[in-house]
Amino acid sequence: MRIFIAFEGSFEPFDVSADATVETVKLMIKDHFHIPLSEDKQGTRYLELMYAGAALKDSWSLADIGVSFCSTLKCSVKEEDKPALYVFNAVTQETMAIIESTSLLGKKVCDLRTLVTLRCGFPVSVYCLRTPEGVELYDCNSLGDYGIELGTTLRLDVWDGWKEFLMGCLLGQKMKVERYLAKEEPVLKYQRRVVLYIAAFHGYIELTEWALKQGARPHEAVGVHPYRAWCQEALHADVSKCPIHAAAEAGQLLILKAFVHCSVLCLECTNAAGHTPLTIAFKHRHKDCVLYLLSKMWSTVSFPKISVPMRIYIKIKQWVLRAQSRSLPRSQLCGRRLLGAKVGDAVMVDGFTEPKMTSRSWHQAESKHSRSTLHKLPPLQERAQGRKAVHSWASSQPDTKGQPLQFPPLMNANLSSVLQHSQQQSQKKAAARKKEKLIKNAYLPEVPLPAVSRVGYSHPSFYYATPSADFFLRASFAPFTQHSGRTPRENAIYCLATASAFKEKRWLQQLGIARVLAKKSISNLTPQGGLRARENPAGTLL
């Protein structure tokens, strides 16, 4: 089969087999045009083939993707810098590439965490980084202290029991966020600030409105987890970032408008480096956000007899808030000024206490907490009373030798009353369940159901409406999902997404390509259902 390759203004014919792969064609092009290709730790230089508007992968066969006789493929040389590091996110199960120069390995961990926050949108106090061996990276150390080399994959771990909560924040699902909120009041307040920060970064309007109604403020710093509130000196500088800063970094114009409408103090809110939202938006080149913030900063606030510039109005409002805080009652004032941990609070000491940022799921964290609280000694007062009772009983017993020793009854009056009360409560609950069951049975249909059919054959399915898209996808790709590890719907979506890159093809042709690719991937699997040694599990095609 003859095809044509367009490369740097030349148009050359090539005779290839119909079953040849894209990798074979690239080798032929490299030898014909004498193209130098290289791959090292700094970057890679490779060939890219384009057909019907899509970049072809090396493992694809020409016939599978619809390359026919006299087809034209475009070839180009690509140069790509390799990422300095990779970060595996334990929440999303995705790997992020940190594209930076090699000088990043000589910097501190806090600099790396700043870059990771800009990529994933998590506040720095929510997660920690670990080496492939599981060693936690501390902000005060450099990456070279841990022996991290170029191309190393680090792991991002979050607080135990927070995976579902953070996933709900990333997806903007308010119901899921509410379900996995903490029960402790300090942790709950901290989670609300985290919700507002992530919603502002990703631009979720509904979740932002919900967090504002819950009491979170856009000009309030996210801060740290209450378990780490005692170690103020060792904290990352970005813990002072506010949700308004996250919205300015991501260029979320609608969120900025909502925050300024909520409180004009957001305009003069500064981060650890002293940058305002206007400075941050200008640094990240978000033109629309810069114009909006400029118009707000240079506007005036009108009163019945006077108009005040916005800067002066903000200073007056800050002065009024400080005066109000000083006039609060002593009890409220002391409660607001308390910093760090109090007696009875849980604390996390680096290197000493058991790590609580291991990305355990909500159910695992709850079960572990319940196991840790199963066996508890009674209070000292109750134990002392029990010892006194046993001692008084032993002293009151006559000295009878040769007679079997009689122990006191296991339950005293108080214990027997408690047991009777618990039995009464259990009987009431059982009666309530029985009554509820009777009520449910009363509403069941009185007409008996027909007898169960014993016919050995299956009846055909009848549809009184057009089949849904889900039924179509399952019917099209169900034969190819026996060994792919995906459900029929997931496999269909993945195949169609891959074939949709061929934009110059019609939809039915894209569907045919997707079916062929799905069928082709089955032959690449071993009889045990695993992958070949040379294939990458993350990039395997269906």
Summarize the structure.
The protein has 542 residues and is α+β, with helices and mostly antiparallel strands. 41% of the residues lie in helices and 11% in strands. A hairpin with a 2-residue loop joins strand 1 (2-7) and strand 2 (10-15).
Explain the overall architecture:
By secondary structure, the protein is of the alpha+beta class. The protein has 18 helices and twelve strands. 23% of the residues are buried. Among the domains are: 80 residues, Phosphatidylinositol 3-kinase Catalytic Subunit, Chain A, domain 1 (Ubiquitin-like (UB roll)); 139 residues, Ankyrin repeat-containing domain (Serine Threonine Protein Phosphatase 5, Tetratricopeptide repeat), CATH 1.25.40.20; 71 residues, no CATH class. Helix 5 packs parallel to helix 7, helix 7 runs parallel beside helix 9 and helix 17 packs across helix 18. Helices cover 41% and strands 11% of the residues.
Structure classification: alpha+beta
The profile of the biggest β sheet is: 6 strands, mixed
The ordered H/E elements are EEHEEEEEEHEEHHHHHHHHEEHHHHHHHH
Distance between the termini: 26 Å
Helix content: 40-55%
Instruction: Write down the Rg.
Output: 33 Å
Oligomer: single chain
Broad shape: globular
